[in-house]
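Cont'd.
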Amino acid sequence: MKHSLDALAVREMMPGFRGRFIHGENVTLAYWNIDRGALLPAHAHPHEQVVNVLDGVFELVVDEIPHVLRKGDVFTIPGNAPHSGRALTSCWILDVFCPIREDYRAA
Amino acid sequence: MKHSLDALAVREMMPGFRGRFIHGENVTLAYWNIDRGALLPAHAHPHEQVVNVLDGVFELVVDEIPHVLRKGDVFTIPGNAPHSGRALTSCWILDVFCPIREDYRAA
């Protein structure tokens, strides 16, 4: 099934985090436009997550260790690992989750 | 774990398809530089696949139906669906697979 990002609904899931979501059979992809300075509060989830920085600079803290991620960096977060973050610039990020993020399905 | 695409080994898995691979717990991400005109032979695999066109134009044929995918297009291919393709321009594509593509692990 073809999806065009421009045609997908945009949902602001947290202040400064505007996401577009695509669900497959066992994975969810989340494309995020993130405002400079936006904060990702500390949280954890059983889903593994792979963060792909497509543009911008994002500081990701995983298990209390900060990592500065730039365009071309990819970070694999194991399931249940606590993480938080902050957009050091405006960012364009693709997160891959497995299994599906049921909480990201449209209401 | 942080991965920088520039630091990953590049492997030409098929003529004109140069890939970089990242394996998580249950997903494999494959970043492909594809030459214009390169051909993806028809094949199928049990893994679901999500094709993300990050740059370029790729013609993807799934279940015998052709789809022209451009930057910003995403295509979800169910497990076991026969697919093939052709790069209409040089392309930069991110494929997400679930479960892991064991055949893409480094030898």
